[in-house]
Amino acid sequence: MTAKRFWPVAGVLLLIGIEALLFGYSYPFFSLALESKGIATWLIGLNASLAGAGILIFGPFLPALIDRLGLKFLVAAQFALSFLSFAAILAFDHLAVWFVARFVMGTCFSALWTTTEIWLNGVVDDRNRGRIVGASGTLYAACQFVGPLMLSATGSTGSLPLIAAMAPLAVGVAVALSIRSAVGETDEEETGSAATLRTALGLAGALIAAAFLTGVGETAMQSLLPLYGLAHGLSEAAASRLVAVFSLGEAILVAVLGWMADRYGRRLTLIGCAALAVVSTLALPFVMGRGLILEPVLFIAGGTVSGLYTLGIVLIGQDFRGQRLAVVSTGFAMAYSAGSVVGATPIGYLIDLFGVEALPLTVALGFLALMAFLVRPRRRIELAAED
Prior knowledge:
This protein has about 375 residues and is mainly alpha-helical. The chain is about 85% helix and about 0% strand.
């Protein structure tokens, strides 16, 4: 990689790390800080929900803002608004400010998740796309893990935790402004008309479905795995460990899958990833209580479920440029968020009706349907052309 291309890639990866750090930091910070003020638990939950709704509200406007402002200035503005949100809490310690600030920064963090993915796809070369995008997923997981550790050092009360959050956000503004805008690197195709953009979304239908199903499967597994473990006679500690192993797979295997996508072909890797997600989730009822087998199966399930999202990002960057890239990436992120919102609720209802085995069975059936769609003959565009 030339020096000219090194900083844009490294800089965007640094922005992704800062975003993940603050994401992991902000959720426990707000919960603990509001609890220390004696706020009702349902209000603390509402505060958290405000943060998660951002991309669903703001997402439809992202492509137009990217087109008008460019990624450099839009990403810098999102970091700046998050910085000002923490500053507002520091200056005006009022409950209404805590809620407005959480909504603003939650919206910014959700939008940053999408815009930095778009930016990274614009600055990487296609030969290394899978490796770098996969590595960014591992980087995100690692920095998100560091966030709560940082909070344990600062505490959740007083001005220190707010200042500690503002410092990396200020760095994010400076880094974003220092990177050459990706507009020139992603506009190999014309921005196109609304009809062209609708066509782009139609051509990415399989990837949008993958994003939605990943959101559903990942949220349901992380939320309901502890209950699944308890139903199989595990202790609370052992049931919680199921989620930890699942999350570890998410953090590590995405980088491996990215490398495999570049090495063995992206469509083949995506189909194989979906197949492994089906097999590993279906295997759960048969390996529960067998620790030496259970943990590798959960590890693979976590990595492949999360890997479907990462591979989708790789394929979008391969096949779309300019405004199409912005629109399809935004639709992809919104589909994932919608799946996360839907997530555990219907599967939890199915568990109430049919028992706990509805969890792995439902998730596996969803990915089986996706795999059947992916193996159909490709038409009009290679959603994931072989390298």
